[in-house]
Amino acid sequence: MAAKPSSSGGKGTTVEEPLDLIRLSLDERVFIKLRGDRTLRGRLHAYDQHLNMVLGQVEETHTVTTIDDRTYEERTTVNTRDIDMLFVRGDGVILVSPPLRTN
């Protein structure tokens, strides 16, 4: 699983198709939103055309909302954990946000 090289060779800086934006984010920290109210922030090591990804130094956040049976109040719990290396299956990915770039 590796990024497709650009036609100009090397890392290049042009975005001609959607996956080019992810290619430009290799070895940088990205934000990923997944199904099931989960988010990831981590360093993107590899990806493929299905958005399967390998991330390092990952912080996972999982938000759980429950309703109290007696009071009917909504309770939101946010769980976080740190993971050294993670494989993300592409069919669970909703959004990939590259790092903020300032020119």
Question: Summarize this, please?
Answer:
This protein has 103 residues and is mainly beta. Helix content is 6%, strand content 50%.
Side by side, the strands of the main sheet go: 4-3-2-1-5
Strand content: over 45%
Structural class: mainly beta
| Shape verdict | elongated
Distance between the termini: 30 Å
Radius of gyration: 17 Å
Order of helices and strands: HEEEEE
Number of helices: 1
What is the residue-mean pLDDT, rounded to a whole number? 88
State the helicity in percent bands. under 10%
Q: Stretches where pLDDT falls below 50 for ≥5 residues?
A: 3-9
What features would you describe in this structure?
By secondary structure, this protein is mainly beta. 6% of the residues lie in helices and 50% in strands. The chain has one helix at 18-23, and strands spanning 29-34, 38-47, 53-67, 74-88, 93-97. It has a five-stranded antiparallel beta sheet with strand order 4-3-2-1-5, with no helix packed on it. Strand 3 and strand 4 (74-88) form a beta hairpin. The longest helix has 6 residues, at 18-23. The model is unreliable at 3-9 (pLDDT under 50).
Characteristic key phrases:
single chain, 103 residues, mainly beta, 1 helix, 5 strands, 50% strand, disordered N terminus
Topology:
Elements lengths: L17 H6 L5 E6 L3 E10 L5 E15 L6 E15 L4 E5 L6
Antiparallel strand pairs: 1-2, 1-5, 2-3, 3-4
